[in-house]
Amino acid sequence: TATMQLAVQVARLGTRFVLLLAEDRTEANRLDEVRRDFIANISHELKTPIASVSLLAEAIDQAADEPDRVRRFADRLTVESARLAHITSEVIELSRLQARDALRRDELVDVDRVVATAVDQNRVVAAAKGIEVALRAKSRAQVYGDPALLGVAVHNLVSNAVAYSAEGGRVGVGVVVRGDSVEIAVTDQGIGIAEEDLERVFERFYRVDQARSRNTGGSGLGLSIVKHTVQNHGGEVRVWSQPGKGSTFMIRLPLAEPPVADDGTGGAGG
Ligand code: ADP
């Protein structure tokens, strides 16, 4: 009968509703877990530098009469506290990005300029390793977004390329327009990344080689910041790599305006 049919339908809908709720619950649990992991990871990452700082402070105290040792300890204290500051600011940056209120500014960004600045910021460190960074940024591309955040993202890729290259290696950075996107590619001839690690390098705190990465001062957050920044700008980041040969990381962002042929009319004046 009609009533029966209605009852069955209501029951069916009811089941679906419950299932949807259950899915919601699972998602909420998963997010809780991610959040717990994140905090556990942060605590773990901070423990070592905090311990070093207090040990060094103690050592300085005990070496008070020996200026040479005091100076040596003080230098290391500076390094460790810089590391603490670095991790803390990356954590703050990442949680902001994840909160999606990340684009504090949304303006026309000159991509060539952002990339050139990020490369310049890495030149001193690169030169110290005898690494030349070749830059080709003449795309004239513009995207909408936050220039500071985009700068950090490109900076992270370039500093990784330098960090995971051998002395005397070469790093190439290029900006090209392709269709209605701009592509920023950072290529190195460094240690490369094994296939099984490729997908995971964008995860928070993921490091292929914990010891080596810690020596380079990395926190394992750099690429995760790149990924979130690029996604918040409606783009994507990809990686190709071959162990022992090198890696290419590529950021693709939607152009603010699709490229137009220069017809000399100059657009809507003013
Ligand atoms: P980190 O601060 O450790 O560099 P990232 O999130 O920037 O953290 O990178 C995660 C891991 O991915 C690194 O620890 C390293 O193992 C690997 N990786 C990133 N960039 C490169 C690269 N250009 N060449 C080789 N390995 C890389």
From TrEMBL:
One Gene Ontology term of the molecular function aspect: phosphoprotein phosphatase activity
Primary location recorded for the protein, binned into one broad class: membrane
Residue ranges of domain Histidine kinase in the record: 41-257
Subcellular compartments: Cell membrane
Alphabetic keyword roster: Kinase, Membrane, Phosphoprotein, Transferase, Transmembrane, Transmembrane helix, Two-component regulatory system
Superkingdom in the source lineage: Bacteria
Catalytic activity annotation: ATP + protein L-histidine = ADP + protein N-phospho-L-histidine
Record GO cellular component, one term: plasma membrane
Any GO BP annotation: cellular response to phosphate starvation
EC number assigned by the record: 2.7.13.3
Protein name: Sensor-like histidine kinase SenX3
Organism listed in the record: Agromyces tardus
Residues shown, of full length: 117 to 386 of 439
